[in-house]
């Protein structure tokens, strides 16, 4: 933070005193919090003159919506050559009820504690200089501050600091010591690789409850200035730090059907930061405009990885008489350090017929060159022994030395060295040949080119592949994910190379709007998009889109808008397995054993993003003005997608309706109410393999063949329905000696209900056929309901002071079947979880504040 402040000070000193300001550029321009989501605007007194001094009544936007009542003009005090005005708001907050992660997700309400906000402004009329300082503090974890200094028509400088919490759990119980570090060791007397399920369950139950979450601390600067009447420069920079913890998986192979693995929900630490930079220069002349800019992002994580211990015994393997090699420690990689840089320029030329042409070009690079961690951190051996002894040799072909895989010498390269180069060229043309007709056209070319390819090769022993699950997979089943052309025969086909997902798109569009009568306008736009991915199931995808729009204002009390979009997506011949080049089978010297090359998926599958698709979208909105001071808005939307596929996504649809009423029956009194309903559904189909040889020849990869029989098909439908509603009131009443009392009230309601249903052709479609008689046809409903009420009374005490009583109440009800039974235990078999999931709550915050005007 000290370094950023120093940078801001130096930047301010570098701004010439003779330049002009550009107020259109900034970073994090909306700073607010849960105590005042409006960023200070909602609590300012309203202007009794309303929206116009020239005529009575409220004014409307061109679409018919009422403008809100503006805030009262400030009454500054003169201090030397400066005019000073602003407010200080100091108070105390008290919270009662249950504090849960959902309630405090992005707000850290204190149980008891002071809170304040301020907004102070200074203006120097003689030369247009101005300064502003504002901020708000709910708690030490939830606050923001901003300072702005500038000169009208010259320059503007801003610096800000923002702290925001992200609470994830309030009832976490971890079996690990070292939570918040990158080394997790077992607590509660648990022994790595030697603890029973009962002892693990007891240690979990006895662990103290703790909170898990992330604290975001962000600071930034924004500078802008006019160098000449035509040239503008700007610089925005921010640094965001994240520190905290979150639940994260730590698998030791599968933990179902007594296979012998374990799944641990460890606690991952978060300690990283992201620097964002945005800078550029703009020229605005009478005919030409130029914009030259740079955008960059630099992400750094403090740690490369974290380790955790496994309390359970690994194995036994699924080979009769074999013994699993003892593995007691796992590792997970952290997010890799990465950089992003982009240079872009736009040239715009004004044309006859009130038109303009614009050309944009840009080039960028995404770079990821972080250090790589070793394939495993095990000691001794991994895999399993066929003899009962862990002696390495030909008698134990499934046993491997950790020493050849637990250092970076086992990597083909020490850093990632992955680069994506982006290229953009875009042109647009807009003409208005008459006051009633406008036409537009444009084209865009964009490409992401993946450079370099990582090959999983161990130069120490000549093996290809990776140590799956930190060695645990090889301790349960033959084949840990590696193959040596000389010493180790291949028994499975494993990905050994990274896949360069390069792609490009070419887009072109054309359209026109026609105002065919005084009150009616229609528009038509056609767009063509040609998408060409590399190493995907198709070589190209074409989208054809037609959009129609109509706006009608024939009735003085009604504005009606209609939009319809039709999209047709199709592509080249579909290849269900385009990734074979990255697997063992394409390495030199590869000789497969029986059933080595797998048909990884049925050839009837279609991935939804590149599948054939038909979309119909409709959007209707009506704005009614039954009275000069009242507005009613109604909207209906629908989006229907169909995918003609046997396996994969088959349909996705959303629809919604909204009704809103607003009434400003007095200049200082307004109320509103609204209700909304939306529904979405997604249908998909899939097929379970029958355990037959998974050779990739046509009969085995075909739906209905021996590997993917029709009897093993299943279908699922996910449906969600959301209700929402609310009301608000702002009213001035009961005038006192120093002005009227103000009441602000709002109510918000959200309810969501999700249901997943399924059908299956036979028990063979299920992972465990034995559960078929009790499988049913759907999972329990998932529900989420939140009701909140906010009330604020503001009473004037004097010309400069008011007192405000604030109350915020929220009630949440959550039902999630994924966490059923977690209130009893967090240990199920060899699976260990960290918390009980989202909890219901009733919480109320009361605050008393005194506002003082300068």
Describe this entry's structure for a reader.
This protein has three helices and 40 strands. It has 854 residues and is mainly β. The two termini are 30 Å apart.
Summarize the structure in short.
This protein is mostly beta strands and 854 residues long.
What structural class should be given to the helix and strand makeup? Answer: mainly beta
Query: Per DSSP, what share of the residues sits in E-state strands of 2 or more residues?
Result: over 45%
> What share of the residues lie within helices?
under 10%
Unreliable residue runs: 1-25
- Give the biggest sheet: 26 strands, antiparallel, barrel
Distance between the termini: 30 Å
Rg measurement, Å? 32 Å
Shape: globular
Please tally the β strands and state the result: 40
| Average residue pLDDT | 90
Number of distinct helices: 3
